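Reply to dn_fold:

You asked what the input looked like. This is it:
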Amino acid sequence: MKKFNLFNEIIITDKPTLLQAINTSKVFGINTDGDIKYEPFEDKEILIYQGKPEIVENFEKVLGKNYQLVEDDNRVLIKAFSNWQELIGVNTPRASYDDTTADGVAEFSNKGLEDIGWHATEFNIDYRTLVEILEENCEGTILCIEQEDPYQFSGLGFLHDNENAKEVLFNYCQTKIKDMIKNDPHFKREELTDDEEDAAQFFNIN
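and this is what came back:
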C-alpha cells in the first residue's frame, strides 16, 4: 500500500471545475487526485474536502480556515493537513480500517477480513500484525499524517481489492497458526480451548 501523507502532499484541482461545483449548491468532495466528486461518493473514495459551501468571495473562505490555498492561473493548489480531524470523520465510513487512535486498529470494516481478524486473535495474532501484512502485500492507500520529529502517525487504510486482501491474510494466519500448534507449547493441539479449536477449524487446520 502507498501512503498519502497530508503533511507533504499538495493537491491540485481545476479552478473552473471547482467554481462550477460551488455554484451547483450540491455537496461535493475533492479527492486525493484533485478531482471533483459529488454525492453519493464511491466506495473507497478518499476525500481531502467535503462540503456544500455557499461563500464564493474567494476559495479560502469556501473551503475553510484549515486549508492552505494558492491560486495559479486555472489551478488551485491545496494543502489539507490542518483539517485532519475533520477528514477522519469524512473518510472513515469508506475506509477498510481506522488507525487514527492511540489504541490502534481494532477491527476491519469488511466482514470477511473482520472474520479473519477475530479468529486470529485466539492465537495472539493482533490487528497491528495483520495490518502490517496488508500494507506490505496488498494494493491500496493509507491516508495519513506522518512526521518524523517528533514522530507522529495517524491514518486510515483503503484496500483496493478486499478479496485479494482476504486471501493474503488467510494464508498468513493459516501458516502462522500451523507453526504455533506444531512448535509453541502454549498451543498444543490436544490442549486447545474450544475457541482456539474453532479458530483452527476456521483456518482449515485439521
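The chain is about 35% helix and 25% strand.
Hope that clears it up.
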